[in-house]
Specification:
heterodimer, A: 376 residues, alpha+beta, six-stranded antiparallel sheet, 12 helices, 25% strand, elongated, B: 290 residues, alpha/beta, seven-stranded mixed sheet, 9 helices, 31% helix
Chain lengths: 376, 290
């Protein structure tokens, strides 16, 4: 689960990591009110859950009220990679002597968290790692012990010559590690961490929480910004379905994540594009299948539906039942090709024999039938 | 021969009294697996389909000489169940549970480093050595005893591909679901190594997907250590970046972990790429007699 910069900074301040002075505004009225507490120049930053807002014009330095007004008007409502900006952060501008990167993420290969830092802050760290890997410093963190001060010191002395700056760096790194472990993060990042008048200040912040651990942090789930998520994906999540909306025209309903991806790939291989990823999960229920049909058919791009089920724990008759309910309750005029094999496949076929559903024996045959229908 | 599980496997089921645990206890028993016990704290002394239930793994092991455990415990309690099985010094733990916090898994895999126990999973469909033993939730009808070893991060996609191998008459030696999570106990290389030294296995199918770099590492290992023919399938060529595709581990992050990278890594070391599940039998025909 991603959260906004302003939310991440609130967490930072709670843990005593220094940040810029700042407040969130939803309107120009808010912004003017906030300016009674801050002094120009300030930086206006779009709060969206996607990177690259700077390049998109979502970050502006303003020096007076006229500039504030035009910045707020241009940024609020701006579309950044499909996300509409609904709030901005107004942050006190500070002098920048040097920009650093500091973050903790999980290294899947090494099977441990890793602390990463660099004197090339303020840039896309993945790009820095690719073009100038020598500028990246990192150290593996034991998941059992957590980050040790000496590890942070070792890195600190490679970045700073001043002892007090090293100490500041170590303190921030240690706190970042505490946040990472205490809140079950998959990423905590300060980029840039700015050296300003001999102080280190978090100017930007990013936190991603491990979805699988949210059950033990009930207070964090209220930070979720439902406005920033695809409504159909929220609807799917509530129905316990795994769904990702894509831009193609073939809707697919599959059991199992791997098979769902393979089905999407096959649709592409035969010349069309999948409209979505949808996994109805291991243990099937007719209700979930009905909900899946509803979600898929809401997508106006969908021109045909492919149901691909390899029954094991998932029973084909459950899937057929859900399909029948959906056909009866919703006004569905789309061609549907179903490939149902495994547990109770014969019952499923009998149930669907008087419906509009077209059968296929294999997934390749199913996709071919879809293509034929789409071509007319 | 087969790998990981065989006729000597004596299985206990942690979480046997739950919905999934009791259902699959029955299924595995019917398949011929020696299911010797189950563990649910507080339910010791009862039984599930005639299988005795114990309060602790240690008690179960002492009474039954179990050497393997399968875990169906909910995510919240699964880490404790894994530690309990490690503490009882079982040889093999298969964890089916999905949704264990990543930090818990990081601790577990690090804790396991100097232990004798092997963990398969979590978020694993389990293991089957067809005709001999099944420790998992895989549907028996997709498999038959034979000569192809399969190692996979998926469930149903594995059944799909295996069913074509079964239909073509090659059959499988052992099929291992290593799990769809980002942090898992047993990886592709561990299984490749076992398949390479297993006389029953004549060819290997590796089923990967987007996320992480395990497929790339496996490709490197295959080029150096594996002499048997290897076929590879990668799911997720149409997956968008930064979106989790069902499995916790299936995500292209920071431009890394794409299907294209993995297919390239496979091609570079001469692994035969399976582009459509049903192609697997044609490709196997180049290497194997029925």
């Amino acid at each position: 689960m991603k959260i906004h910069e302003y939310q991440a900074k609130e967490i930072f301040r709670k843990y005593n990591i220094p940040t810029t002075q700042e407040k969130v505004a939803f309107s120009l009225v808010d912004a003017k009110k906030i300016m009674q507490e801050l002094t120009y120049p300030v930086v206006i930053k779009a709060q969206v859950l996607v990177g690259g807002r700077g390049k998109a014009g979502g970050v502006k330095l303003v020096k007076n009220e006229a500039e504030l007004q035009s910045a707020i008007n241009s940024i609020l409502g701006m579309n950044i990679k499909g996300f509409i900006v609904k709030k901005v952060l107004i942050a006190q501008a500070i002098t920048i002597d040097q920009e650093y990167y500091l973050g903790i993420t999980i290294d899947r290969e090494k099977q441990c968290p890793v602390l990463i830092t660099s004197a090339s802050g303020g840039m896309d760290i993945e790009q820095v790692a690719q073009t100038t890997p020598e500028k990246i410093l990192s150290v593996a963190i034991s998941p059992l012990l957590g980050l040790k001060s000496f590890q942070a010191r070792n890195l600190g002395y490679q970045l700073f010559s001043d002892h007090s700056q090293v100490n500041n760096f170590v303190n921030i790194a240690m706190v970042l590690s505490r946040i990472f472990f205490e809140l079950d993060c998959s990423l905590v990042e300060i980029n840039p961490l700015v050296l300003s008048d001999n102080k280190l200040i978090a100017v930007d912040a990013k936190i991603i929480f491990d979805d699988n651990a949210l059950f033990r942090h009930p207070n964090l789930t209220q930070l979720r910004d439902l406005d920033s998520e695809e409504p159909s994906e929220i609807q799917a999540k509530n129905a316990d379905l795994s769904y990702v909306k894509l831009s193609g025209n073939v809707g697919c309903i599959v059991n199992g994540a791997g098979l769902a991806m393979a089905t999407m790939d096959l649709i592409k291989r035969y010349g069309s594009e999948p409209a979505n990823f949808l996994d109805i999960g291991g243990s099937s229920s007719p209700e979930k299948m009905r909900e899946a049909m509803k979600i898929i058919t809401q997508d106006q791009n969908v021109k045909a539906i492919f149901v691909n089920i390899f029954g094991g724990i998932t029973r084909c008759d459950d899937v057929a039942q859900g399909l029948l309910w959906a056909l009866k309750e919703e006004n569905i005029n789309l061609p549907i090709v179903a490939r149902l094999v495994g547990t109770n496949q014969d019952q499923a076929r009998a149930m669907l024999s008087n419906s509009v559903v077209i059968f296929a024996e294999t997934m390749t045959e199913g996709v071919k039938k879809i293509m034929k229908i789409l071509k007319g | 021969m087969a790998i990981l599980i065989n006729e000597d496997t004596k299985l206990i089921i942690q979480g046997i009294t739950g919905r999934d645990g009791s259902f699959h206890a029955q299924q595995m028993l019917e398949y011929g697996t020696k299911v010797v016990g189950g563990v649910t704290p507080g339910k010791g002394g009862s039984d599930v389909s005639g299988i005795p239930v114990f309060n602790t793994v240690r008690q179960a092991k002492q009474a039954t000489q179990a050497n393997t455990s399968i875990i169906f415990v909910p995510a919240q309690f699964a880490p404790d169940a894994i530690y309990e099985a490690i503490d009882a010094e079982l040889d093999l733990i298969v964890c089916v549970t999905e949704g264990i916090p990543t930090l818990e898994m990081l601790k577990i895999v690090n804790y396991l480093k100097d232990k004798k126990t092997r963990l398969v999973g979590p978020n694993s469909a389990g293991i089957i050595s067809p005709g001999i033993c099944k420790v998992g939730i895989l549907p028996a009808m997709a498999f038959s005893k034979g000569k192809v070893g399969i190692v996979s991060r998926s469930g149903t996609l594995t059944y799909e591909i295996a069913s074509h191998i079964t239909k073509a008459g090659y059959g499988e030696s052992t099929v291992v679901g290593i799990g769809g999570d980002p942090i898992i106990g047993t990886n592709f290389i561990d299984c490749l190594d076992m398949f390479e030294s297993d006389p029953q296995t004549e060819a290997i199918v590796i089923i990967g997907e987007i996320g992480g770099t395990d497929e790339e590492k496996a490709a490197d290992y295959i080029s150096k250590k594996v002499t048997k023919p290897v076929l590879g399938f990668i799911a997720g060529q149409t997956a968008p970046p930064d979106k989790r595709m069902g499995h916790a581990g299936a995500i292209i992050a920071g431009g890394k972990g794409t299907a294209q990278d993995k297919i390239q890594a496979f091609e570079k070391v001469g692994i035969s790429i399976i582009y459509e599940p049903e192609e697997v039998s044609e490709i196997l025909a180049k290497f194997l007699k029925k």
